Structures are given as C-alpha cells and as structure tokens.
C-alpha cells in the first residue's frame, strides 16, 4: 500500500539529516509499529506521511501514486492523531467532531453518520455534550483518535497515542487499534512502550539517527535473536567472557549485565559449566527467548526509557 | 469548511468570558473613565473652583470687581483667618486679593505702578485654569478702568453697557458637533479596543499551533488561506460589535453618567463605516502577522500588549496628539492607531466625508495588506 524508498530529509540549518535513506513498506490492513528513541526520525517520517513536510530526496508512493498527488486528490486517505490533544478544548466532543468532519469536507447524512460511528467506536456517546477540556486524559485520547477516524482513512498515523492515560484507557486504545486493522485500516503506530508494539504490531521498524536499523514482521524479529541468557558475574570476568564467546554473541550492558545470544548448538547448562570453569562467581542467570526490548537495546545501544 | 471553522471560532470566543471582557468591557471602561476624567478639558470650568476674596479696598471699583466676580464665579468661601495655609493645603483653590488702592489706581490718569489685583492659587491648580482666571481678571479690571476713564473724561456712565466682551467672540468651526471629552475619547478607545484583538488572535493561534490542530487541519486538506480567513472573519464581526457598543456607550450611557452625549447627527455614515472597516482590517492583519511570528503564549501576551500600548501611546490614544510636542506629533504619524483615530475624528468632529477620510483609510488598508502578506508567508514557513 505505502512504499517509502530512500527517503532523506534535512531541516534547514540542521547539522545532520533527520532521515537518511529510509525505505519501508507498509501493507494494507496491517499495523506497523515504529520504534525509536527521541531524535530517531519518527516524527519527521510521520510528518512526511501526513503531508506536513515535502519530500526532499527519495519517494513515497501510495498505491503506486506519489503521495503528494494522492493527497491532492483526496487528502483524507491518510489521517494523523498527533501526540498532542489536537482538538478545541472549548468545544464539546460533538462540536469538535462536527467541526473536523466539515473541515474534512463531510456533509449532510454522511457527516452525521460518520460522527455517530466515531462516537460509538471511541465509546464517547455519553460525553458528546461534554466540553473537551473537561474530559479525562484517556477520554481525550479517544477523542483524538475519533477525529482522525472521521474521514474513514485508509492509513491512520498514531503518534504515541497512549501517553498519559490510565491502564484501562490504554487497553481500550490498543483494542481499538486491533479492531481498526481487522476492519482493513492500515495503522502506523509509534510508542515508547515496547510491550504495546509487541501486543499490536504485525510489522516493526526500528529507527535511530534517521536510519531504519531493522524492519521485519514481529515474529521474524523475535525469532532471529534465538535463545538468550542474561548473566551477572564477578571475579574472573575476562576469562569467563573469553569462554562464553564459544557459546554465542556476548554483549555487556551498561548496568554490568551480560547478554548472551546462544548459538544453535549451545545449551544453558554448558554456559553455566564454562563460567564455573573460568573461576568467575555467578550471581544471576536468566534464560529465555529473545524479546523486542533486548533487540532494541542491541541495535540502538540504549533503552527507550533512557532517553 | 470555512463556515464550520468560523462557527468554531465564534463558539470558542463566546465561551471565553475573560477574552470577551478584554474585547468589550475594557474599552467601555476606558471610554467612561477617560471621558469623565477629561470632561472639563474641552470646556474648562473655573466657576466650580473654591475661592475667597480678600478685599482691602472699600472704594466703588473694588466693590464692583468683587460683586462681578461673585456673579461670575459663584459665592466665595468664607475667608479663613489663615487663608494662605488654606491655599497651601488646597482647601481653597485660589484667592483674589484686591489691593487697598485698587479703586484709586483704576481711576487714575496714568496707570500706577504695582499690582492692584492679585490672584494667589493653590500649588496644584492646573496651569490652564490659572491662566483662564487671570485673563478674566485682566478683562474685568480693564473694563472697570475703561468705564472710569469714560466717566471722568466724557461724563458717560456705562453701568456695564459698554462691556468690551461684546466686541469679541471665539468658537470652533463645525457644522453640527463640538469637541467634548466623549467626542474625543469614544473614537480613541474604540480604535484601541479594535486593536486589542491582537492579543486574542495571537494567543489563540499559538494555542492551536501547540495543540497540533493547525497541523491536523492541514493534513486533512484545509488550505492555509482558509485557516487564516477563518480566524479573520469572526474578528471582523467582533470589531463591528465593538464599534456598535462603543458608539452606543457614547450616545446613551455617557449622558446618564453625567458626561456629554456623543453626537452622531449629521455625520457621514459611509465615511464612518469605511474607517471602521479599514481599522478592523489593519488590526486583524497585524494580529495575524504577530500570531504567525510568535511561538509561545508568553510571547503572544507580552508582544501583543506591548505593541498595543506603544501604538496607543504614540498614536494619540492615551494622550491627544495635539498636546504633544512636534517631535512626538511627527512620531504619531507612524502609528496605525493614529491613522484610525485621525480618520474617525474627521468624521466625528470635522464633518468629514469619504474624501476626508480616504488618506487615513488608504494607509490602514495598505498596512493591512502588508500584514496579511506577512501572515501568509510566516504561516507557510511555520507549517513547514
């Protein structure tokens, strides 16, 4: 559906490019989770897709048509629910929906039908006459989403849609994203919460310093790491690390924890035996499958929450 | 699309009592307060001043002068024993001291040396009031002397019938109106109030840029000129309502509060409407340019208020330009508020028509066009 090819962008006066040769494919009806620390280029990428930034280098095609041309024909094929509460606080929920529906060129019965559908989808019917400024954080997020859904977009851009909401509202929003994808709407979802991406994304792209570090389906990403161990050792650490290199890829984290991605032939018992042989003292060992957070750390050398 | 965005602006404005107060109540208060405060500036009353007479002369001319003064200025206060202290403290505003030889001096062949009628005023008495009383005293004394000499040399007793006051007159040339504090202050504070949309528009714009609503509208294909127009048109209506309210205050409220009535009879209405539209276009254009320039609420509030007050101070809103020194009067000509005020005064004070206000309207419209262009360019830059 959406093909981004070698997209590069540099803000005027900026010392380095915000995006460098970004290439991505977004398939119809799927959820693409976009992960990256602050400054990775997520917002710049979303701004391109929302039509807020013009392409400098590279191309973006929507169903084979240049994005600018596709947007000129029907701007509401792609809509944005920004991280901010992008609505009018003095207006009621219904008035906000009516305003943005009219701004999006909806009229008459179609307008009324879409307002009702979006109120229902976001479960905001009870709050239709409540001023937006009086809503809780979770309800504001729902309104933000409902406004983006008014014109029945083919692709919706959700930028950190669960920031500042309670667990119930977060669960509601995640279910809503799954429901949208099930209805055939394509979703591009950015979040600081990796567990959210793991919960809803079909595909994941990890961005840092304006480059795509890895992009694949979520199962493929999780599978490519294989089994791994987390270890904490003291004493003859150097000798232990030399031995551990025979069992897989070793990476020391900033907090002294050693991450070991096991080779296909390696076993946890063999690793523990090697540590004992090296003379090092083992304080902690954890074994499990690869997870997205660890992959993110490996690729960017930091955690999302370290930012 | 445009109608929905205009409706949104109107709803947001109607639900903002503080914003409404700033746009409507504040200029009304300024009109009322300043008109009452400056009520006597255009027709200074020396008759209401507390005064006393120290008449040290029992002669006929001295008695006549004291009698005439009482007639013209009302009953004097009882002379306190320490009347100089009463003057210093402001309990008496002036004292007319008639010298013991006043009558003799008035009837003398040649004018004798020395002061024969002395005005002593309290320290705070306004300069113009003191000069006015002094002029009255000089005129009265001159008439007494003329009468005395006429009687002495020609044997004529005038009994006031030869008053030289009948030989002079002074009036302002105007077909239907006369300058009053209300006639000056209504247009002045109306211009100020109309320009006060600057802060309202700039703050709203900053809020919407920060909230991402401007970006959201852009992403769903709302053209930038529609976004700008949707801000401008409601405030054009706000300016229209402000004008109607301020004129109504001048016509109906001010007389009830003891002020003069704003006189609109016989004015050239098309010229007034042209001026109001031009002022509104300039104010909204300036507001939009500023709104697209600033990035934060603090900048919008500070810069908006500062520009408003500076333009008002320089432009003759707070202090009439005609009391300013020439340098400041020259500076006033650069303030859009001054163009607005002068144009309105052409209509409200000088019976001006379209031709009279056209130079001012043209300047305002030119300024508005420049500001609208700046706003469009700045908005495009911001959205990039």
From TrEMBL, chain A:
UniProt xrefs under CDD domains: ABC_DR_subfamily_A (cd03230)
Pfam family, one: ABC_tran
Signal peptide residue numbers: none
Keywords: ATP-binding, Cell membrane, Membrane, Nucleotide-binding
Gene3D superfamilies: P-loop containing nucleotide triphosphate hydrolases (3.40.50.300)
Stretches assigned to the ABC transporter domain: 2-234
Molecular function GO terms recorded: ATP binding
Name the record gives this protein: ABC transporter ATP-binding protein
Lineage: Bacteria, Pseudomonadati, Pseudomonadota, Betaproteobacteria, Rhodocyclales
